[in-house]
Amino acid sequence: MQELTELQNRAIAALLSAGTVAEACKVAKVPRRTLYNWLELPDFAQALRTAEAETIKGTSRRLSSVANKAAARVECLMEDPDAPPSVQLRAAQIALESAIRWREATNTEERITALEAAILPEGSIQQ
C-alpha cells in the first residue's frame, strides 16, 4: 500500500467529520474533482474505509459506556416509589422495548455468523 500524502490524510479526516463531500473539500482545502479522483484510488479508498471503521469502533465503545448508565437510570426511575406512575410506566416501556431490540439484534448477528460459517471458506470471514 502506498503512503498517503498529508493532504490526502487531511481529506480523510475531513470526510469523517463533514456532512458532505463538498464540505469536506472546503475543510481540507482540496478541489472537489481531486477528492473524487482520490476516492477512486484503491489505497485512498482503503485508508478511508480503515479510518471509518476505527471511528465506528470508537463510537461503539462510547455508546456502550453510555448505554450502561442509561440502563441504570431507566431502572432507577422504574423502581423509584416517588416517581409519578407515568414516569415509572415510561421507564418500564423503554426497558422492555430496548430488551426486545437488543435480543433481535443479537439473534440476527448469530444467524449471520452461522450462515457465513456455513457458506464461506474457513478463515475468510472478516469482522
List the helices and strands and how they pair.
Blueprint lengths: L5 H12 L3 H8 L3 H9 L1 H38 L5 H35 L8
Helix pairs in contact: 1-2, 1-4, 4-5
- How far apart, in Å, are the first and last alpha carbons? 21 Å
Kindly name the structural category: mainly alpha
Helicity, in percent?
over 70%
Note the main sheet.
none
Report the portion of residues in β strands: under 5%
Describe this structure in words.
It is a single chain. With 127 residues, the chain is mostly helical. It folds into two domains: 1-62; 80-119. It is 80% helix and 0% strand. It contains five helices and no strands. It is flat.
Summarize, please.
The chain is 80% helix and 0% strand. It has helices spanning 6-17, 21-28, 32-40, 42-79, 85-119.
Give keywords:
127 residues; mainly alpha; 80% helix; flat
